[in-house]
Amino acid sequence: MIINFEQVHNYFERIVFEDVVRLATQYPDYSADMLADVACVALNRLPARYVRHDVDMMFYLTETERRSIEDSLREAIDFSFAFVGERMAKRTRVA
Known about the structure:
Blueprint: E1 9-10, H1 11-23, H2 32-45, E2 50-51, H3 54-59, H4 63-94
Antiparallel strand pairs: 1-2
């Protein structure tokens, strides 16, 4: 039996990556490495939600659950940009 796991992914990955790219223009001093760190920090603050198709997850959510996910995403992204920026500022002061 051949099993194909290529479709399986964390639901939040694409959304976080897209948000980081979209918001990157507001952080012109952030390097590509820093933006990758922002994505990692944000993803680590969110629960892992593995799906085969994004629509599978959204189809079964109530409006309240969708709103909660959107709020969690926004909080994770905002926190992550601030966190990475603070860490880089500390490194710059020490160096």
